[in-house]
Amino acid sequence: MRRIPMGKTEHNRSDASCSFADQCGLVETLQAKMAELSQRIYEKYCTNPSSQCARRWLYEQAGPRAVPSLMLPGQFDWAHQIAEELNGDPVSEHAEAQ
Ligand code: SF4
Questions:
Q1: In a domain, 93, yes or no
Q2: What ligand 1 atom has the least distance to the C-alpha of 19?
Q3: Judging by beta carbons within 10 Å of its beta carbon (0-12, 13-18, 19+), is residue 49 exposed, middle or buried?
């Protein structure tokens, strides 16, 4: 099982409740240069099934190829724009939640 070193501690990917954790890669991408941000994202979003993550939402709406590698979990405006461009559908579900 792959382990993700996070600063002074290590988190096991199985701690992540997000069903897209294996393909997302954001935490690993940010880890080298922004370890603190990477850890905060992991704890706030990836291990919290009730969190609102723009990346997860876009995975569900449009699939993995639509998710930019550096999109952050709070970037719903960007996620909505991508979904609208791909689907041509107005996006309101998460716009109201923000
Ligand atoms: S950043 Fe979002 S999509 Fe990626 S693993 Fe964490 S919760 Fe899932």
A1: no
A2: 8
A3: exposed
Which are the contacts of 13, defined by CB distance < 8 A and separation ≥ 6?
A: 1, 2, 3, 4, 21, 22
* Closest-lying ligand 1 atom to the alpha carbon of residue 42: 6
- For residue 89, the CA-to-ligand 1 centroid distance in Å is 23
Question: Does a structural domain hold residue 94?
Answer: no
What does the pLDDT look like over 15-56, one tens digit per residue?
779 999 999 999 999 999 999 999 999 999 999 989 999 999
* Tokens read off for 80: 């909505």
The pTM is what? 0.79
Q: Looking at the domain assignment, is residue 63 inside a domain? A: yes
State the pairing for strand pair 3-6/9-12.
antiparallel
